Structure prediction request, 228 residues.
Amino acid sequence: MTNIADRYNTIIKQIDAASKHSSQQQVSLLAVSKTKPLADILALYSLGQRHFGENYVQEGVEKIQTCPHKDISWHFIGPLQSNKSKLVAEHFDWMHTVDRLKIAKRLNDQRPADKAPLNVCIQVNISNEASKSGIPLEQVDELAKQLSELENIKLRGLMAIPANSKDEAQQNLEFSQLKQAFDKLAEQYPDIDTLSMGMSGDLDLAINNGSTMVRVGSAIFGARTVKQ
Ligand SMILES: *Cc1c(COP(=O)(O)O)cnc(C)c1O
Prediction:
């Protein structure tokens, strides 16, 4: 049986190999620790990992508050209901799933004055699936413009979860469409540097298409007992 450290090192190597292969400069690893105990986070921390992603507000806040290390960047990557936005604004460093102005305004208003602006990505529904959250590509420009006017939010880029497809050509197409939209946005806004795409099963393909941040859960922490 492999342990968490072995799996982590394997993923680091895989990311390195893929990013060299695609002349991509820098790909960071977001370790998705949802449903996993703080002990697993601490194990990865001791190996040098500093970016962790959580999907559930309560669970994430509990880990942030009990974690002894203060130099971790915490990323919220799940769907967010308005009535929980305050907890994200107060505790997290990043929010990957902004998909409407209303939630962005709440995060902006609720961000504590003594914290740096909240880093945000706009979530794009790249495969236009009714079941997925995120906005259509055509609406990215307008939402980006609105977000750029909010002081306590720093727009960093785009995030997507592509169709769960075995069809590699389809996945490639979706990743490359997102990359095009990302490049366009980066020409307009100076802080845009993050293309959050790729998970355990498709990180090579995502990196080949220009991902700058892969969100990897099960390939590091092992399967989740609660299916997400
Ligand atoms: C759970 C989750 C991941 C990680 O998925 P794995 O397939 O376990 O790597 C990445 N991104 C989001 C938004 C998730 O909810």
